[in-house]
Amino acid sequence: MLNPWGLFLCQLAINTSYHVIKASLCLGGSDIFATVSENRPVGEFIANLSIVGDPTGVNSIRLCLTGENANWFYLEGRTIRLNSSVLRVLDRERQGSVLMAALTCYEDDIIQSEHRVMVEILNENDNKPTFFEKTIQPRYISELTAVNSLVFTVKAIDADGDTIAYIIDRASPDASYFRIDLPNSGKVILDKPLDYETKTQLQLVIYAVETNTKEWYNTSVSLTVNVKDGDDQYPQFLPCIPISQDHNHTVVCTNAIYAVNITEKDQDMLLNFSPGPIHAEDGDRSLDTPLLYSILSGADKNRFQIDKQTAEITLTRRVENRHLTPIFRLRIMAFQLNDPKKYSVATALVRVLAENRFPPVFNRTTYKGFIIESSSPATLVSTYGNGVLLIQAIDQDFVDPTLATTGLYHITEEGVIIAKTDRLRPFDRHILEVVARDEESGEVAKASVDIELLQRSQPIPQTPFRDMDVRIAGGIMGGMLLLLVTTLFLLIRWAKRRRRQRRNPAGRGAVALGKHLKVVSAAPCTRNTHTVSTHMNLTHTQGQLKRA
Predict the structure, then answer these.
(1) Is the pLDDT of residue 46 over 70?
(2) Which ranges form a coiled coil (predicted)?
(3) b/e for 230-245, b at 16 or more Cβ within 10 A?
């Protein structure tokens, strides 16, 4: 029989053995190290626990997950699984590369053990490259940038950490202007010269491509490159006369020749050139660099002076003898104020002419013409009596007229009008205006030509009275006779008065002196070597005039 002390020791041993056995249920555990790929579905296995006790048994233990990333896991018995969902996907790029938590084992709400849970998230290629926004903004490059120069750099990043190469899409509109020598650098090199005057804006497409993955994910961006104008063009006199055009539609032109006419009496005057005014512009239109002007040659000891800013040329003194110097040839230079080496030269001609004395005149103000219907492509226009119609412009300052054409009619140098008969219809009536112009003084004379197209069987009238009846013709003849009698009566009265004046002694004295009371001395006439031009305008057309 045990004494009380022995009984106490026995009970103590039993209790101690019970707690040791119970505490051993949390034993056997350890830190957990595992891996899981990103984007895995819910319930993905993470690890099994090595704890002795079963949290689902009768004398159960209690397991608890705590820590920063504990919500990404849940316990299923002694198994840890991934706690993800359709709306909550494990993403290494957002959650980081490691998930950390703590596993605590409780017995009777007393912590018996605690272990670390560390799960590495394995990367999957689930991202495309993206460009840094600041590297793909519109660029501005001077047209003077040297070929093979670095013009800009693009940069992209891949969230999966993949290696990226950069490629220019050669199908983009202006890909030929650029290249990338080192694909992984993103450095874009200028491959051919820029020209602001040809093209002011370039477009190209650049790809960022993964090179170390089987998917080869890529992304593209469209870049705009604006070409800035550089000071590479010389001044250009206006108007520009095109002489050629290349495949880039760049027009090559030559300077106009400016011309003006003066007389021997002219001096101290501004010269108005044609085409005018004399003016040049910087070839780099967007820069519009200020220009200055000077006369390189032909100024004739300052007879001609030019305004440096406006290019206005002044004649300072008259020409003494136009036969000795009938023409002056001025060489005018326009150069940039900031760079005199950039210049252009034009020619200005000053012709010295005799003074214009007479305006042009036609020998008639109205002409009447007829055409017989014909299938011939061209026919001479006739007048009354079947004679050839002649248009004559006279100017005593001119030598020969210069004539022009219209769509249906052509006038020769002799004043003969040729009609394009195959383009006319019977009974057509055309009213033409013929203009003779003094090309140097600007004076003009005008006449009209009334042309009718007759049928094949219809004769050309012999006189202007072909359509008048006898009574009208008789009335006209009577009026003309009355006018003739009146004229004769006035002439007789004038002759009688003239005889009385000759008996006047003052008149006889004047005759003795070799003068006439009604005559003033006149300067001799001289002939200019000007040119006159005559042209025709079709001002009115009346078709289908029926005849009786």
Answers:
(1) yes
(2) none
(3) bbbbbbbbbeeeeeee
Best CA proximity match to 259, nearest among 362, 346, 137:
346
| CA distances in angstroms from 158 to 129, 187, 209, listed in the order given | 4, 18, 9
Question: Do 428 and 453 contact (CB within 8 A), yes or no?
Answer: yes
- Taken in order of first residue, the domains within the chain and their CATH numbers are 28-122 (2.60.40.3430), 130-228 (2.60.40.60), 236-353 (2.60.40.60), 361-470 (2.60.40.60)
Q: Which amino acid is at 538?
A: L
The whole-angstrom distance between residue 161's C-alpha and the CA centroid of its chain comes to 46
| pLDDT band at 135; cut points 50, 70, 90 | very high
- Name residues whose C-beta falls within 8 Å of residue 282's C-beta, 6 or more positions apart in sequence: 233, 235, 236, 288, 289, 291, 336
Angle between helices 470-502 and 505-512 (to 10 degrees): 90
Cα→Cα distances 462→12, 386, 389, 500, Å? 165, 7, 13, 47
pLDDT at 457 over 80: no
Q: What is the residue-averaged pLDDT of the chain?
A: 80
Nearest residue to 143 (alpha-carbon basis) of 78, 199, 87: 199
Confidence label for 528 from pLDDT (cuts 50, 70 and 90): very low
Q: Which two tokens stand for residue 372?
A: 């017989």
CA angle 217, 223, 226 (to 5 degrees): 165
Total Cβ atoms within 10 A of residue 535: 15
DSSP 358-403: ---EES-SEEEEEEE--SSS-EE-EEGGGEEPB--EE-TTEEEEEE
Task: Find all residues with CB under 8 Å of 260, minimum gap 6, and list them.
Answer: 271, 272, 273, 274, 276, 348, 349, 350, 351
At residue 386 the predicted structure's pLDDT band, cuts being 50, 70 and 90, is confident
Who has greater pLDDT, 464 or 298? Answer: 298
Neighbouring residues of 180: CB distance < 8 A, sequence distance ≥ 6: 166, 167, 168, 186, 187, 188, 189
Neighbours of 157 (CB within 10 A): 14
Q: Please choose, from the candidates 432, 450, 446, the residue with its C-alpha nearest in 3D space to the C-alpha of residue 383.
A: 450
Q: Which pTM does this prediction carry?
A: 0.51
Check pLDDT > 50 for residue 529.
no
Q: Round to whole Å and give the CA distance between 149 and 60.
A: 76
pLDDT value of position 544: 35
